[in-house]
Each structure stands twice: as C-alpha cells, then as structure tokens.
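Course assignment 3, question 2. Fill in each field.
Student: A.L.
Task: Predict the tertiary structure for the chain below.
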Amino acid sequence: MPSEDKELIQECRQGRKDSFRMLVERYEKAGYALAYNMLYDYDLARDISQEAWIKVHLNIRKFDLNRRFYPWFAQIVNNLCIDYLRKHKIKTKPLEEFDAVKRDKPVDAADINERREKVRGFLQELPEKYREVLVLSDIEGLSSREIAVITKCNDATVRWRIHEARQLFKKVWEEHERMQ
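Answer field:
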C-alpha cells in the first residue's frame, strides 16, 4: 500500500476529518467509475459510491493496513452494486438466451445445434480479448472476478470487456440476420 494511504488511514482512525477527505478525493472518481460501469446509471452510480464511502468511514478501523486500500474500497463498491442489481432483479441476458425471435413451439435438436454453430462462428469474428471474456462469462458461467484472475486483468476491465463483447456480438448477429 502506498505509504500516503497508510498514513491517511491511520490518521482517519485517530478522527482526523481532513485525512478522510483526502482519502475520498484520491479515490472518489475511481469508485464512481466502477459503480457506473456496473450500473450504467449516473445518479445511481453516484449514490452507490457515496454509500461505499459511508461504509469505509464506518469500517476504517477494521481495514488491514497490510493490504492496499483501493482493492478493499473497490470490493465495497462492487458488492453494493451487486446487491442493488440482485435486489432489483436486474440481470444481463446470457449469450445462450440471445435470440430476437420468440418461439412458441419446442426447438428440436437440429435447431439447437445450428444455433450453437452460428454462435461459435460469430464468436470467431470478435477480437480475442472480447471473445475470451464472453466465452468465460456467458458460456462457462464464470464470475468477472474469476475471469479477472484468468485474464490477469482487473475486475472493472473484465466487466467492461464483457459489456463491449456483448454489444459487438449483437452487432455481428444482427448484421448476419439482415444479410439473410
């Protein structure tokens, strides 16, 4: 942990409000950006990041000074975002469920295999960094944290890539549908 952060945290524990303000100023943009990338709502991201700072303030004495501050703070923001998404039952649509056409009749095995091959082909059209996260997330069912370890990227980068990958996949899918 940067020595400045450690000093600020120690001073916060002693009740120095100016030290907490400095800590907030140092990390508030990063916390807001993380919340926004999870929720895609400016006002909600602001509320979540402010709530995260309240939790930091209440729990600063529990923080392990041997750890870096930002990952701890990011985990608080991430958990608040996930709690919000779960509470309001907001989910992203898995790749297997992506289909613009609703069907009233059962799908036979040939249709399923045809769709799988179509998805595999479209995935090959994506740049590798997007294809990788999309497969790990939507096909393998791994969490963004697990993907972050695998890809050696941070969690925010993984979530952003998953979002971008889904947008690119959708674009490729729709272009092929228009051509048929």
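Instructor remarks: Residues 95-179 form a domain with the Arc Repressor Mutant, subunit A fold (CATH 1.10.10.10). The chain has two domains: 3-87, 95-179.
Grade: pending
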